[in-house]
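For this section, I looked closely at the sequence of one protein beside the tokens encoding its backbone, which the following lines show:
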Amino acid sequence: MSGELRADGRSVAGANHLRAKRPCQDALCWERRSGVLALAVADGHGSSPRGGEGASLAVRVAVEWLLNFHQALEPGLRGRLGAVRELALEPFGCQLVQEWTRRVLEADGRGDEALRDHGTTLLAVLVAPEFVLYLQLGDGDILRVDAEGQVSRVLEKDPLHFANETASLCSPRAWRFIHVAVHPPLAEETLLLLATDGYANSYESDEVFERMGPDYLARVRERGFEAVIAELPEILEQVTTQGSGDDITLGLVHLMPAVPGNTAARIS
């Protein structure tokens, strides 16, 4: 993988949350380490009074642990996508949930009640030279847009999610509900979008929602990545106001391949 790899995103409080004078309970975090990038978004449950704090802990833990996961992999394993996926499910997925649980209980020692009060979903991606790892626990959407503007879901919607019910980091044995996909490394221009469910719920169907993926790629090409990030709060506020009224977080990862011969554009 060579080229310019960029990541960022924004969270906005839902229109309904603002009217009720409730804070945004979504969170986003990303970090780059030696040419490897991790980004995570989380949606604290509206029924969890400290869901926003749970979401903030979740994205920090996910980014930290994903980067450590790649670092700990033996170099010979990194190119074996099936083996990476199995290790991401077990033991990594279990360890991730345990670490979030440990940090919640460290901050609030009320046991199961504290976990329920910090309930949150989690979406994350790890972009490495050898593979791309996608992870999801609970609702929300991860979209991939290729250089031709074709959009795809890297993880199918979980049929267990319906109405306002979803798996959560606070669910008993939550690691059972983690879904993972491991794909070959990015080789062409690609835009990855990680969105909490307030975004998709603002549209009449998944098909209409998914059209925003190619739209964002076109915006990045026309206006530049930084300009699109700067515009996100206004875009997302309009979506929640006209749609679900829920908090919305959108994380973006964009790879622009290096121009042949232009070594300055390559990432380490």
